[in-house]
Structures are given as C-alpha cells and as structure tokens.
Amino acid sequence: MRGESVRLDGVSRRFGDLKAVDGISVEIPNGSFFSLLGPSGCGKSTTLRMIAGFEIPDEGRVLIGEKDVTREEARKRPTVMVFQNYALFPHMTVRENVEYGLRVRNVSKADRKTRVLDALKRVDMDNFVDTAVTSLSGGQQQRIALARAIAIEPQVILFDEPLSNLDVALRQQTRIELKDLQRRLGLTSIYVTHDQEEALALSDQIAVMRDGRIVQVGEPRALYDNPKTAFVASFLGGSNVLTDPAIAFELTGKTLRSGEAVAIRAEHVQIEEDGPFKADVVSRQFLGMITEVELRFKGVALIAKTTAVVPSEERLSFHVLASTVVINDL
Q1: Shortest CA distance to 44 belongs to which of 228, 210, 236?
Q2: Dihedrals φ, ψ of 111, to 5°?
Q3: What pLDDT is stored for residue 33 in this prediction?
Q4: Which residues pair with 229 in a beta bridge?
Q5: Is the pLDDT of residue 166 over 80?
Q6: Which of 47, 57, 315, 324 has the most beta carbons within 10 angstroms of its beta carbon?
Q7: What is the per-residue pLDDT for 1?
Q8: How would you write the chain as a 3-class SS string?
Q9: CA nearest 153: which of 110, 180, 204, 116?
Q10: Nearest to 177 by CA among 213, 125, 226, 215
C-alpha cells in the first residue's frame, strides 16, 4: 500500500445560513498522519466528509495526489472512512464484515479471501475470522473496522473520532497500535478529534480549527511550544492566558502591544518555597501523577501543574519558567 497527498484549495461548505467550513486551504503530505483538531461545531467533520466525498464543497477544490476529485462520487475515490461507531454489521462474522467492501467492488472470491486474511493479520485479529462481531470487545471491534478499511487498499484513510467509544486505558493502548499500523502501511491518514492529548500523541502534523477555519498548522511540539493565538494556547493542552499588561510584565518580563497576551503553560508555573511571587490557593486536585493547583495572584487566576508534593498552606510561592506572546483572540 502507499499513501497519496491530499490538498484542499479554498474549500467552503454552507448549510443554510451556517458556513460550516470557511475557505480552508491546506496540504497533507503523502504517508503522513494529519489531525484536524478543534471543539464541537468547528467544521472538522464536515472537512473530513468533503475529502471522503460525502459532502460536496460549495467553493474550492479537493485534490488527492494530482487528481481533482471535488465532484467525484465517494465510492470512486481512493479513500475509506473509519467511523466513530465502527459501522460494523452485527449479523455478520468478522470475515463477512471485512469482506464487505471487497464484494461491493466486485473483487474475485480468491482475492477476497487473501486480502481479508492479510488485513486481519495486520491488526492481529486473524484468529477471529469466523467470530460474530457482537461477541467482540470494543477494542476488538475497532480493529475489525480498521481491517475492513485497509482490505480495500485505499490511498487515504479517514478517521472520524474512532476512539471516542473506548474507555481511557483501552483508548491509550489502541492509539499506540493505530500509530504503529499507520507507519507500517505508509497510508496517508487524516484524523478528526476534539481530544488534544490524542492529537498530540498520534500526529505528524495538526491543524487547529475554529469557526470553520484553520487557525494554525504545525508539528505537535511546535504548536504546543509556540501557539500563535490565545485560542490555540488554551485549546491545545491548556494555558494561563494573561491579558493585563502589568501582570504579564511582572510575571514574565514581557511587554505587550495592543491585541497581545501572554500564554503560560500550567506546568511552567513552578511552585517552590523561595519563589519570587506569592498567591492564594483557591483549590487543589490530586490527579495521580500530577497535582493541579488553582492560584489567585492579584486577582488573576493561574493554574499550576506539578509532580511534586504541594504544601498545605493557604498561600504558596511560585515563579514562571517560560511564556509565549500570542494574539489575544479569546
């Protein structure tokens, strides 16, 4: 298998008076794992559906490789979708579910058998060929959905929040397996999620979306360390966003211009006995590996996350390790 690049060129989609997607342009390299990340209603699923061919853009073009597929039917595109609810047929066995897409494409019986077994081996489910899908766990059903997708040998695989139905532990394990499978297959993968941790863990690149537009694209580390707007800083992992120039300068030494703010990651608010600043403790939450502390400094709320033991005092000292100047768009 091999992946193809995907390019969106000024793509827009309206539903009545609502502009769900507003002039998106982005290029997704072949063989990469690319995530569309944003809150509910930002247009990420509509964007994915336009790539799949389930929605037709009102404006702009969708290209896969060098081919313009904007008006091409979904079944004729070299894409396949893995849905949130898996979309497996409950009355069919594992083999029949994986084989379904091949039957629709009129693949010969002999070729179907080979491709079904190969796909199941790739997801470590070849021992469940004749099992009823209803007897499988959620994680196993997710693997069958993946096997059905890769059996048709697509060039682009599309994921619409495929892990959201799994519990936390299984979700973490499945995303490791998913990333490993994607690397082995070399397929271009486009992944829709509202889960920041999931996007950071899986992606080669992330496009952060808001109100139908892409506000920033980049590698996970680059986005996390250098958000360009307050929205990206807050949405991607959470930040303390300071809009008061006097407070921002006192804590970080950075002078703000009109329309700017300072973003401080919660893990960069370091609680320590001899820190230069003192703040009131509003709340503490023990979260296992970390403790989250809400502080109030001169009327401004700050969240600190630390792996250290937090003293029980009502006031704590702290200092700021790092900060980023961003456009204040909140």
Answers
A1: 210
A2: -70, -35
A3: 95
A4: 327
A5: no
A6: 47
A7: 57
A8: CCCCCEEEEEEEEEECCEEEEEEEEEEECCCCEEEEECCCCCCHHHHHHHHHCCCCCCEEEEEECCEECCCCCHHHCCEEEECCCCCCCCCCEHHHHHHHHHHHCCCCHHHHHHHHHHHHHHCCCHHHCCCEHHHCCHHHHHHHHHHHHHHCCCCEEEEECCCCCCCHHHHHHHHHHHHHHHHHHCCEEEEEECCHHHHHHHCCEEEEEECCEEEEEECHHHHHHCCCEHHHHHHCCCEEEECCHHHHHHHHCCCCCCCEEEEEEHHHEEECCCCCEEEEEEEEEECCCCEEEEEEECCEEEEEEECCCCCCCCEEEEEECCCEEEECCC
A9: 116
A10: 125
CATH number listed for the domain at residues 6-225: 3.40.50.300
What the block records as the tokens of 161 is: 């929040």
Looking at residue 267, its amino acid is: E
Q: What is the pTM of this model?
A: 0.89
The pair of three-digit structure tokens given for residue 22, joined into one six-digit string: 């507003």
The domain locations on the chain are: 6-225, 232-327
Residue located via tokens 């509910």 = 40
Written as six digits, the tokens of 153 are 């040998």
Per-residue pLDDT reduced to its tens digit, 201-210? 999 999 999 9
